[in-house]
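In this section we walk through a basic example: taking a raw amino acid sequence and producing a predicted 3D structure, encoded as discrete structure tokens. The instruction is simple. Fold the sequence below.
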Amino acid sequence: MKLSGKFRVGAAIGVGVVAAVGLTGCATDGQLGIFSEEQSAEDIVSVSEGLPNTADADTTRFLWADGDVRYFAALSLDGDPCMIVLDGDPGTSSNACSTALPLMISSGPGAREVMLADELPSSSPDWEKVAEHLWVSK
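The resulting token sequence is shown next.
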């Protein structure tokens, strides 16, 4: 069967549109998809709460709360993934940034170790997913 020129061009355009639509939901530059979403009021971390001066305030995203402890993802001023852990006490926080994921942090003695990742690495079976992109050690 011979395809007409219009059909081939139409099919090529259709495939291109489907590919472009499929890619719009992906994060850019290897970042987590949450950074392509709009920042909400719940996502905002102020300097007085514990926003580190190395983090881009416009990129903070709320991930999960465990009692008075809140967990956020952010991007550093250099564009690297970061995690911010805010304790219930104002101004008490822990944070870490890394050039690659997964990123693990413990906010102090007796605190849970948490991991920020796109997917759970297969070498990490002792983790429980508590939120999108966030796992805690079992």
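Looking at the output, two observations stand out. The radius of gyration is 20 Å. Residues 55 and 76 are 4 Å apart (CA to CA). In the next section we compare this with other chains.
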